[in-house]
């Protein structure tokens, strides 16, 4: 069993450490509970602009000097903005761990948000919104967000052109001042760093960073809107997105959902690839996946096909999901489980992946979950479990999105509009 420490610090930070003494690098992730859901309604895109401008200057250094400081210790770092949180991930040699954390503390505690950097980042956000128009699948993902999750959780971090117009440099400072504080921080560390050292470094660097207690631990309300929407676009391909409610990451049936998705889309042996692409030649691309914001879950199907095959592709996708309830072969089940376990034991065993997994555990569960426990739950899934899951969570209300030259008709008539709060 891996040595894992989990505590709340006096400064307000909740942190966890996966102690891996034989590793040669250390990884840490700061997760600030201040993502796109915290944007004001008329300033969508604000959280991402704050994240993108944090490293452009502090009270002590310019952006160039800050980047040079990270480069001087060989640190690899990345910042990103999601629906519910901002993540800041860093991989560094163990001897430079304290220095790297100090640089992040400087960035988080004393940003200056230079006006010129703010203006550049607004322009870059606009360019990314334009580029999204040339990424059909990315555009479908953005467009299906609001009907799948509602107006809050369904926001895209980039915002919209009209809301970017409303954001000023002062808004960045106000957003940072309101939400960036130790009480909204989850920190995960993996590698050969002694847990006592982690505790002392975090408490020392972030003591006094905000006076309130822990905030932002509750998830945001999700709303599901069933119906079919078409967005007309001059494309050679027709892109289809289908979504229905699933279960959240902490639900007992989450491992069952994982295996079900694995049977549908677990590599080239997955049913969607073999039945929809290889046997029938209906699609250029097809996939299934699930997403789990805190407190909710969604299952997605996606495909790109020719406009004249759109109807058949749509009905075939749904038929393949329903056909799971008619019979799953044991070897099919075992392949899906093996794929999930192998991914966790190989790609998921890197120091950075272990760190990210711990951060997700703190975010979703409020505690570390041993990898062995997760693997055991996946390995325990049976064919009967999947049949029960499909019966318990029917696909009678769907959110369907098409992008291309032709809307769905006939067998794919829009469902009755329905909103269901979760």
CATH architecture of the largest domain: 2-Layer Sandwich
Q: Give the low-confidence spans.
A: 411-421
The DSSP helix count reads 16
Instruction: Tell the overall outline.
Output: globular
Per CATH, what is the topology of the largest domain? Cytochrome Bc1 Complex, Chain A, domain 1
Structure write-up:
By secondary structure, the protein is of the alpha+beta class. The protein has two domains: 3-206, Cytochrome Bc1 Complex, Chain A, domain 1; 223-421, Cytochrome Bc1 Complex, Chain A, domain 1 (2-Layer Sandwich), CATH 3.30.830. Helices cover 41% and strands 20% of the residues. The protein is built from 16 helices and twelve strands. It has helices spanning 46-53, 63-72, 97-109, 115-132, 136-143, 145-149, 161-164, 169-179, 195-206, 254-265, 271-279, 310-323, 330-345, 351-364, 371-379, 383-392; strands at residues 3-8, 14-19, 26-32, 76-81, 86-92, 185-191, 223-232, 238-245, 283-291, 298-305, 399-404, 418-421. It has a six-stranded mixed beta sheet with strand order 1-2-6-3-5-4, sandwiched between helices. Helix 1 (46-53) packs across helix 8 (169-179) and helix 13 runs antiparallel to helix 15 (371-379). The protein is globular. The two termini are 36 Å apart.
